[in-house]
Amino acid sequence: MAWAGHAWALPLVGQDGGIAQPVLRVALRPEVQVDRADVRLGDIALLSSPDIDTLRRAMAVPLGQAPRLGEPVALEGARLRGWLRSRMGLRDEQIQWEGVESTSVRAAMREIAGETVAAQAREALKSHLEAIARQKGLVQPRIELQAVGVPPMLQVPAAGIQLRIRPLEALVPGPRMLVWVDVFAGERHVRAIPVRFEMSLFAMAAVAREELAAGSEVPEENVAWREVDLARLPAAAVPAAWGTQMDAGAPLHVRKRMAAGEVLTADRVGPALAVARGQWVRVTATSGGLSLESRAQSLQDGQIGQTVRVRPQNAAEPLMAKIIAPGQLELQP
For residue range 161-185, what is the model confidence (pLDDT) as tens digits? Predict the structure, then answer.
């Protein structure tokens, strides 16, 4: 933007040679600071008119977007005069120009404390984690968040400032989490601010009272409920739904050896497998009214109803078979 004006106050001469009264007087200011996303004539000039409607229209004449913070723009009157005539429909003799020949326009500034940014990020992250806790059915969840450093004081345009949290849907809970906060002035993106947190997600979980050997059944008396920081568990280690498994009459079995005090997680305990990887099983193949049975080695763990890969005895390529009973599978077409 480089518009300008004349700095005179001359008498106006009408078409008949007489002195004409101006419809609009415009006095540009030397410097202005705007706290809006857009700049209007009323922001940069003192206006007067005997007609209130003309005055209102002149004050609302748009001049463009506000300059960026720290980047002042000079509005020069020569172009401003032509722009005003085209927008208002006035002739030269109907406008009287006064004041300076150009105006320096700056964006007004405001400061935002880093604590404000961190607090907004914290509330958004806390709500996100609470939703995950409800979805997973965690027992008595408790979330602790500690910002790792606070963003410095921000200098931003004063016009329509907004702080927007980037979507958190894909953010997986972990001991260290990052939230991005975008700063907007109106619809203009000003900057992006990273806010880091140390996170703890406590909930009641089943733990082993004593050491449990692989392959053994988990006795109910060897299970205790304790508050555990689930954020410190491996990402794949989901706490086992002990109560649900017991209520369903399916006792849990240990898949990997567990030390005393370890959390019973779904990768270490679960219902007894109908088929284990490496186990020799019976595979039935039906063709018409003929049923053939052979031995095969399972290449995957599985439960009844699941389909796993098996390698028949003396065969080079694996086949897919459905588990219909412990150690019993049915070849799939």
Answer: 889 999 999 888 899 999 999 998 7
Could you give the residue ranges of the DSSP H alpha helices within the chain? 41-44, 52-59, 77-88, 114-136, 242-247
pTM: 0.59
In a domain, 4, yes or no: no
- Residues 167, 131 share a domain: yes
First and final C-alpha spacing in the chain:
73
For the chain, the C-alpha Rg in angstroms (whole number) is 38
Say if residue 196 is in the same domain as residue 207. Answer: no
Q: With respect to residue 13, please indicate whether it lies within any of the assigned structural domains.
A: no
- What is the tally of structural domains in the chain? 4
d(CA 79, CA 84): 9
Residue 178's SS3 state is: strand
Neighbour-count burial of 208, counting CB atoms closer than 10 A to its CB (0-12 exposed, 13-18 middle, 19+ buried): buried
- pLDDT tens readout for residues 215-240: 788 877 888 888 989 888 876 666 66
